[in-house]
Specification:
The complex is a heterohexamer, with three copies of chain A (98 residues) and three copies of chain B (324 residues).
Chain A (H helix, E strand, L loop, with lengths): L2 E11 H13 L5 E9 L7 H4 L2 E8 L1 H15 L5 E10 L6
Chain B lengths: L2 H9 L2 H14 L8 H25 L2 H29 L4 H12 L3 H13 L8 H21 L8 H9 L2 H22 L2 H6 L1 H18 L1 H32 L4 H12 L5 H9 L5 H33 L3
Helix pairs in contact in B: 1-15, 2-11, 3-7, 3-9, 3-11, 4-5, 4-7, 4-12, 5-7, 5-15, 6-13, 6-15, 7-9, 7-13, 8-14, 12-13, 12-15, 13-15
Classes of the chains: A alpha+beta (98), B mainly alpha (324).
The complex binds adenosine monophosphate (3 copies) and sodium ion (NA) (3 copies).
Chain lengths: 98, 324, 324, 98, 324, 98
């Protein structure tokens, strides 16, 4: 009954968050959920404090979309921005939505 | 009032003290923290508010009054970032990308420095033309774009200017500032009267709270300063004086008052750390925030608070003495 | 002041301009966004503030003064939603559930439209009875309940009215509004004097910020409008004029001033998009928010801002001319 | 030492959040954690923007309680509201608490 | 004005009514909730604001004026927590840890009770020395530390006083209060004039909003009260009167006015529920928040709002009559 | 390509959050992400309401760091504070960062 999907959680400095949200949808994600956060990390070089912290973005996606997202992150985000990303397995009820 | 007293008046204004308190909070490892949502709201308030004031002042000024200062400010907005870019190769060994990023910051303006300057000038009962708020909005944008253009020579990838410009100009800081000018211009003094307590009366208080948090942010960056190197430090303290003096000169030449010229000097001396970092981050990810934020927020901002602001007034008074 | 000037005064008030700026922000895909927490806080402030004002005014008004307008308003609160429900089957092909939901919205009131109307009337130096704030609170609730009752015929499931009513009446919008009235009534003018700067002086400024975000929300809904259909569009623009005219009439008949009657007309013309959507969502999930939000926020709200508000004043002046 | 539990994450429009929190406890959840969020999704028909975004609710529960919650969601929430829900496996230390 | 009227003036002040409204919201299971970020911001505002006022008043008072009340307040700050600690073994069967925690709360002060008291005194046109705001900051800290010291006897583990003290003194409440005093002192009346609308004019309004949420928090704790037991209830209602009377006495002896002595009495009568809980939580996790929060927020705070505040004024007027 | 890590999620009353964040870094976590939250739980005895809710802290760590964190929680936090903690499996791209 429950279907398997991937949950991608991304924490990114505020100034880039809006662009990333657009990119996620472009990669095929059908939705996302964002909330404000702050934190510390190994890099810590960013403008985010001044912009008011980080944004924590979650998106539940299929395997294929996951691939596309990770690809995008690797080219356009990881090299430059204060960003953290982790992936986990989740199950959803209404699988046509994700 | 002598120099020392001037400096003291400036240093004991609530916003400046709040910034120091924020530095202290970080030094003491206090768990104080303005919630992210509130910090963002304060900056929205400040940007929109100053834009509105600029717009209202714009509507009240005659074309004759405004034309010369406006043209002067635009020239300033073009000259300062270019000067910063080339002087930086003298002061530091940074590459074009990072020099362009810094040029964008020093070519743009700092709302907070400006407001602290206005608080200072008003405490001395100096008259300041209302339209300096308009000049702030005008000076905000060209510096950023010129800085990015200069930096773009240093990057390998193709920069997509169209999309970048859209992202920058609709970025929240610039949108609020420009939108505020529009709103203020259209609503005029009659409309502004209805929101004056909110956007005017509360402004310095809100700024005080904002600077408390900004002081904490700056405090957390202090260790970055060590890595910045002596060259950046020298640039961050001498360039504002040069750019500021130029700004005062432009003010005096274009017929502004002593106070108004000092305010334009403060604007020109100030380095952006709200609009410019966001824009540079989006369009120029190769540049290191550790460098440009350290310089603008860590070095130049406190320098201006303590030394730059009263110096600009002194220069303005000096030039006035020359009968300029 | 002729009609065009009237409309212009209205359109250039800061809250209205901020709404337009919000629409622009969405159109330009700006990354501007008021944090959720702050947006919620602003709406808490506005609801509580207007409630308090209503309560204070209630305490200051004599029974004779208030009795007729109060009864009139209650009648209005019953007639308008019923009229909306039946007229909708004329304008559209919506089912009873969605018509009931819309009736709840148009039977209730919009705090924001009302305040924009007051800003407008005050800009024209029109006198408005203080107790219209009380009437707003009174008119808020019956429309919602009647609308839900009308809709309940269209649903198959058994509606648990007891729990639904508790949820609606303790829902945050209505609780704040009613609680504010209570607080204002009990504290009186002496108590209100102590919080007047906060709840009174800042009101229009806070509303301006709130409308900036609401403009963005409305902007994001614009594509829903296309689906809404021409019938809903016609309803959303003609019904407010009818309900509003009725409101003005009630005001004039019950002895209110020109300004006060116009204000009651604006109240009656306005469609709720804070209290009603929340209540309808809770009690009537079958109804489509795409329909009722598009109509109330996307069509009727801007329509009232631009046309409805000055029209209500014109009608009131007309009726006054008739010696009503 | 660590015991297995289920983490249910639900994103729901603000106006319904309070009711859902009550329902979770009624279904047997011993606690929940809520925070403000906003997002986009495939349905996007809701009143939540006007109410100030979404609420993101998390609850760590046992298998049985999970069943009850999903049942409740399916009858009372999925058909009507802007809601997203995913389930994942977590481990907890003090299992008597969940 | 007789006693009943006094009590009524107090009970109908907006902050007190908002607290009651908050209780009501919980009782009705309303979904009202001030977002966490906003609640935190309000408390930052209140603490910083009262600190600033205290600092400004400090700068305006002469040493002669201030010396006696200051010394008196310090003595009060030492005596009250010790008295609370020992009296608690009479009233209750709590262990040393919980008695120490309670002593910390009752030895410290409640900003909110104090402000409600000032609102009350000002409504009666009573003069209150500006420096009572300074006394609040002074009285805040010693009680907490003495309470913790008393409690530390009851715990087995070694308490690391150094780190604990740093954590407590840099904890956000105390940092803001002390930092505000510093800021206010340094900026003086000239600087304060620029932020008076924000930190002064809005204060009661912000407090009203804050108390709305605090009322809800207190409402959720009401069931804890049953567990608290009759002993704690008696302590929570009689101790404030004793400590308060002592405070009034100290005020009168050290030459303060009727209003000022009443204010010092209110301070002394009040039990902390912002700074103390945070400090106790950090340094004394063994103590049960269910006990100390129930007592300070659930029992003593409403007791003071309703009975404590007017009683302190009555005592002060009585002592004044004795020619003290 | 993706490497396995542990995601520790901790919900704790606000007054203790800052200390816990320091402790996490001390235990070897290379970063964390915090956001404001509120909730209900089985204990519900805390000062957090008055401090403005809870803080929800997430940290992605290795197995060893996880052990250290759980140990720390068991001694210094669980017995005293309003705290909830759960652990789940996640995958990360840039494993040197976690
Ligand atoms: N190990 C981690 N666990 C959770 N969040 C992290 C971790 N490392 C970094 N972050 C988050 O990612 C953001 C960016 O990290 P950084 O690029 O290292 O500055 C930080 O501000 C944290 O919010
Ligand atoms: N794929 C997804 N991943 C994460 N969050 C989602 C996803 N889809 C929807 N949401 C969230 O669920 C909310 C309701 O979705 P919807 O009902 O489609 O409007 C959205 O506002 C998002 O916050
Ligand atoms: N089963 C649960 N699922 C999610 N969060 C929980 C759960 N139990 C407790 N919490 C969170 O942990 C906090 C502290 O719990 P407690 O110590 O029981 O008061 C609560 O306020 C909730 O935010
Ligand atoms: Na500049
Ligand atoms: Na209506
Ligand atoms: Na006390």
């Amino acid at each position: 009954m429950l279907k398997k999907r991937k949950l991608v959680t991304i924490v990114i400095e505020t100034s880039i968050a809006h662009r990333l949200e657009d990119d996620l949808l472009e990669c095929g994600a059908k939705g996302f959920t964002s909330s404000l956060a702050h934190g510390a990390g190994p890099r810590n070089s960013r403008s985010s404090d001044i912009e008011g912290g980080n944004v924590r973005i979650e998106t539940v996606v299929s395997e294929e979309v996951l691939e596309a997202i990770l690809e995008k992150l690797k080219t356009n985000y990881f090299p430059h921005y204060a960003i953290s990303c982790w992936v986990s397995d989740v199950e959803v009820v209404r699988d046509e939505r994700y | 009032m002598d120099g020392l007293q001037l400096a003291l008046t400036n240093l004991t204004s609530p916003p400046v003290l709040a910034f120091a308190l924020g530095l202290l909070a970080t030094a003491l490892r206090s768990d104080l923290r303005l919630p992210d949502a509130v910090y963002q709201a304060l900056s929205i308030y400040l940007l929109l508010g100053i834009g509105i004031k600029g717009g209202v002042a714009l509507g009240q000024s005659s074309f004759e009054e405004l034309a010369a200062p406006l043209v002067g400010t635009l020239i300033l907005g073009a000259v300062v970032p270019v000067a910063a870019f080339y002087l930086l190769s003298f002061f530091t060994r940074l590459d074009a990308v990072n020099r362009g990023a810094l040029a964008a910051h020093y070519g743009s303006t700092s709302l907070v420095t400006f407001t602290a300057g206005i608080v200072f000038l008003e405490a001395l009962q100096m008259q300041v033309e209302g339209y300096v708020n308009t000049l702030l909005a005008v000076l905000e944008i060209p510096g950023i774009i010129i800085g990015l253009a200069l930096a773009s020579r240093g990057i390998n990838r193709q920069m997509s200017w169209g999309e970048s410009l859209r992202e920058i100009l609709t970025g929240k800081s610039i949108f609020l500032l420009a939108g505020g000018v529009l709103l203020g211009f259209l609503t005029g003094t009659a409309g502004y009267a209805r929101i004056e307590i909110f956007f005017g009366g509360l402004f310095t208080g809100v700024l005080t709270l904002f600077l408390l948090e900004l002081g904490m942010v700056a405090g957390r960056r202090i260790k970055d300063l060590k890595e910045a190197g002596i060259g950046l430090f020298l640039f961050g303290t001498t360039f504002p004086l040069m750019a500021g003096a130029l700004g005062v000169l432009v003010g005096q030449i274009t017929g502004m008052s002593v106070g108004g010229s000092a305010a334009l000097g403060i604007l020109s001396a100030s380095a952006s750390y709200i609009a410019a970092p966001a824009a540079v981050r989006l369009a120029l990810p190769e540049a290191s925030p550790g460098i440009y934020l350290s310089a603008s927020l860590g070095i130049t901002f406190p320098f201006n608070l303590v030394i730059g602001i009263p110096t600009m007034l002194a220069i303005s008074q000096l030039l006035e003495g020359f009968g300029l």
